[in-house]
Write a structure and sequence with these properties.
The complex is a heterodimer. Helices cover 38% and strands 25% of the residues of chain A. By secondary structure, chain A is an alpha/beta fold. Chain B is mainly α. Chain B has a single domain, classed as MetI-like fold. Chain B has helices at 8-12, 14-46, 51-65, 69-84, 89-115, 119-127, 132-162, 174-184, 188-217. In chain B, α2 runs antiparallel to α7 (132-162) and α6 (119-127) packs across α7 (132-162). The chains are: A alpha/beta, B mainly alpha.
C-alpha cells in the first residue's frame, strides 16, 4: 500500500534521508525505530507529503506523493497521522476537533459528523470529554483524541510519529492500548516509536534507521531474534535495558 | 465674561461636536476594519512561498512605513480624484489613505501572529486534508487573532488618535469641529482642554479594555 523507493532528502547541505526504500503492505504494522536525529520522523512525514523530498518516489495506493499533479490534501485526508505533541486544535472543543475534517474535507453533514465523533470518542474512552477544550485534558487523553480525529477520516492507513514520547509514563499505556487494538483490527500502520513492547506485540516488521539510512528492515522475529547489524544491536541494548 | 472661563460653550455645542465625533468614530472603525483585512492579505503575501507575492508584501510594508502619515493623507486627497476623474470628498480620500497606511502596520502585527502559531498546528491541519485556505481559515487565523487581540486594539487606539490629522484636508472630525467653535467663540482654552480630556478618557477606556481582554485570553 505504501511504497518508498530510493528516497533522499536534504535540509540545505544536511543529508537527512539517504536512499531509503521500504514498503508497507495492506494490513501490515511496521515499526520504525532508531536514535534521535536518524531521520525516522522525517521519513514518515514524507509519506503524506508534509515534508518534501528531493529524490526517489513514494506512492500510497498507487498515487505518487511527490508528483506535482497530485492532490495532496485529498491524499492526506485518506492517511491518518498522529503527532508527538498531539497537535489538537486548542481553540475548539474536543468534539469539534474530530468533526472539523469530516465536515470541511469529507463534506459530511453536521449530524453524521457528530454521531461519528461520538462513536470514536467512546471507542477511545473519552465520550464524556466531548465538550471540553484540549487544554483541559491530560496528555494521554489528548493523544487519544488525536487518534480519534485521524480515524474520523476513515483512513486507509495510519502514521504515528512518536505518539507516546511526549507522555508521562503512566499515560503511555492508555495510548498504546488504543494502537494495539487498531493494529489487531487490521489497520495498516507505520509507527515511529521506541516502545519495543508495542513492536513485539503487534508489529509485522521493524525498520531500524541510523543517520538517515534504513539499516535494518526485518520481520519482528528476525529483528528481535537473530543477529543483526552492530548499530541496531547497540541501539536495542540501550533501549531494552530499562 | 472676557478673561474668565466659560465652560458652557461646550454644552451649547454638543450636537455640533457630536457630529465631528461621529466622523472620528466612523473613520477609526472603517480604517481598523479595512486595515485588518488588508493587513491580513498582505501578511499572507509576505509569508507566501511564492517569491513575487512575498516581494510585493514586503515592498508595500516598507514603502508605507517610510512615509509620514500626513503626506499619505495629502497625497490621496489629490491623487484619488485625479485617478477617478471626479471629486470623491475628503472623507473617502482620507479613508482610503488611512486604510492603505494602516494595512502596512496591521500586516506586521498579523504576520507575527501567524508566525506564532507553531508548525505543528499547520501540519496537523494539513494532515487531516485541509487545503491551505481551509487551514488558514479554520486553524491558523482564529488562533493567531486570539493572540493578537491586545496588540490589534492598541494599534486601533493609535489610529484613533491619528485620525485627528484629517484637519489638513479640512474634514470635520471631532478636533476640527472643536477648533471651529474655539475660534468662532474665542474659547480656545476651554475647547482644546475639552478635546484633550475626551481623547484621554476614550484612550484610557480603550487601554483598560485591552488589559481586560489580555487577562481573559491569557493562556
Amino acid at each position: 500500500m505504501i511504497q518508498i523507493e530510493h528516497v533522499s532528502k536534504w535540509y540545505g547541505d544536511f543529508h537527512v534521508l539517504k536512499d531509503c526504500s521500504t514498503s508497507v503492505a495492506k494490513g501490515e504494522v511496521v515499526v520504525v525505530c532508531g536514535p534521535s536525529g536518524s531521520g525516522k520522523s522525517t521519513l514518515i512525514k514524507c509519506v503524506n507529503g508534509l515534508e518534501p523530498f528531493q529524490e526517489g518516489t513514494i506512492s500510497v495506493n498507487e498515487t505518487s506523493v511527490g508528483d506535482a499533479g497530485t492532490n495532496l490534501p485529498q491524499l492526506r485526508s485518506r492517511i491518518g497521522m498522529v503527532f508527538q505533541n498531539f497537535e489538537l486544535f486548542p481553540h475548539i472543543t474536543v468534539a469539534d476537533n474530530i468533526k472539523l475534517g469530516q465536515v470541511k474535507v469529507l463534506n459530511r453533514g453536521d449530524d453524521e459528523a457528530t454521531d461519528r465523533s461520538m462513536v470514536l470518542l467512546k471507542r477511545v474512552g473519552l465520550e464524556d470529554q466531548a465538550d471540553k477544550h484540549p487544554a483541559q485534558l491530560s496528555g494521554g487523553q489528548q493523544q487519544r483524541v488525536a487518534i480519534a480525529r485521524a480515524l474520523a477520516m476513515d483512513p486507509i492507513a495510519m502514521l504515528f510519529d512518536e505518539p507516546t514520547s511526549a507522555l508521562d509514563p503512566e499515560m503511555i499505556n492508555e495510548v498504546l492500548d488504543v494502537m494495539v487494538e487498531l493494529a489487531q483490527e487490521g489497520m495498516t500502520m507505520m509507527v515511529v516509536t521506541h516502545e519495543m513492547g508495542f513492536a513485539r506485540k503487534v508489529a509485522d516488521r521493524v525498520i531500524f534507521m541510523d543517520e538517515g539510512r534504513i539499516e535494518e528492515d526485518a520481520t519482528k522475529e528476525d529483528f528481535f531474534g537473530t543477529p543483526r547489524g552492530e548499530r541496531a544491536q547497540l541501539f536495542l541494548s540501550k533501549i531494552l535495558q530499562h | 465674561m472676557s478673561g474668565g472661563f466659560d465652560w458652557n460653550v461646550i454644552f451649547k455645542h454638543i450636537p455640533f461636536l457630536w457630529e465631528g465625533m461621529q466622523v472620528t468614530f466612523l473613520l477609526t472603525f472603517l480604517a481598523i476594519l479595512g486595515g485588518i483585512l488588508g493587513g491580513t492579505l498582505l501578511a499572507l503575501c509576505r509569508l507566501s512561498k511564492f517569491s513575487s507575492l512575498a516581494w510585493f508584501g514586503g515592498s508595500y510594508v516598507n514603502f508605507f512605513r517610510s512615509m509620514p502619515l500626513i503626506l499619505v493623507i495629502f497625497w490621496f486627497y489629490f491623487l484619488v480624484p485625479m485617478l477617478l476623474g471626479r471629486p470623491v470628498g475628503s472623507f473617502y480620500s482620507v479613508l482610503i489613505a488611512f486604510t492603505l497606511f494602516e494595512a502596512a502596520y496591521y500586516c506586521e502585527i498579523i504576520r507575527a501572529g501567524i508566525s506564532s502559531i507553531g508548525q505543528g498546528q499547520v501540519q496537523a491541519a494539513k494532515a487531516i486534508g485541509l487545503t491551505y485556505q481551509q487551514s488558514m481559515r479554520y486553524i491558523v487565523l482564529p488562533q493567531a487573532f486570539r493572540n493578537m487581540v491586545p496588540i490589534l486594539l492598541t494599534q486601533g487606539i493609535i489610529l484613533f488618535q491619528d485620525t485627528s490629522l484629517v484637519y489638513v484636508v479640512g474634514l470635520k472630525d471631532f478636533l476640527v469641529t472643536a477648533d471651529i467653535v474655539a475660534n468662532r467663540d474665542n474659547r480656545l482654552i476651554e475647547m482644546y482642554s475639552t478635546v484633550a480630556f475626551v481623547y484621554f478618557v476614550l484612550c484610557l477606556l480603550g487601554s483598560l479594555g485591552v488589559r481586560r481582554l489580555q487577562r481573559k485570553y491569557a493562556l
